[in-house]
Design brief:
The protein has 195 residues and is an alpha+beta fold. It is 16% helix and 31% strand.
């Protein structure tokens, strides 16, 4: 059970103390999801692009970060759950015009951790499965990277109205008409008539 606690520093005005927002922290690379879910821990932080090697293969610029909020909890059935939200602004290449294309990726995810070789049949379908390693930990950076890779379009392209090239077919010069070629099945048709 999480409680919201408010502190009043100015007893005269009954206003909450206004402080500068906290800096985002780096999300841990690995952790024990079962123990973390029992403690109902929430991480609100960042993962740098340079820590996500598969994402670096897709982006044009490798400086940037993914904003991530991950909450660990036990659901009504006592199943450990890893829920999260991530967003990132990436720049990739438009596959139509070969120019830079900015994409805003925003996604939600929900996983339930299982041990190596364990069955996931007992898990509700609303949870994806994440397999723990030999030490009973999961790699949060890899989990976030997997979700980002799935959010990137298979063929990223600008909107047609914003793209240097359109869907109109491109041709250079005049296309010559082809000569009519004889149908190779005409011979079979003749043989069938003769028999």
């Amino acid at each position: 059970m999480q409680r919201k606690v408010e502190f009043y520093f100015d007893s005269k005005s009954n206003n909450l103390y206004d402080a500068a927002p906290m800096q985002k922290v780096k999300i841990p690379i690995t952790l024990d999801p079962i123990r973390t879910a029992q403690k109902q821990v929430t991480y609100d932080g960042i993962v740098l692009f340079e820590q996500l090697p598969r994402l670096l293969d897709v982006v044009v610029r490798n400086e940037g970060e993914v904003e991530v909020k991950i909450h660990f909890r036990k659901d009504e059935q006592g199943i450990s759950v890893v829920e999260g939200h991530a967003n990132a602004n990436i720049t990739t290449i438009c596959q139509r015009c070969n120019e830079e294309l900015g994409l805003d990726l925003e996604l939600d995810f929900a996983y339930s951790p299982i041990g190596i070789g364990k069955s996931s049949e007992h898990l509700p379908s609303c949870y994806d499965v994440v397999e723990m390693d030999e030490e009973g930990e999961i790699n949060l950076h890899q989990l976030v990277e997997d979700e980002l890779m799935l959010a990137i379009p298979i063929v990223p392209m600008h909107e047609e109205s914003h793209c240097r090239f359109s869907e109109k077919p491109l041709s250079f010069g005049e296309i010559e008409a082809e000569d009519d070629k004889p149908n190779p099945f005409e011979i079979l048709k003749q043989l069938k008539k003769d028999s």
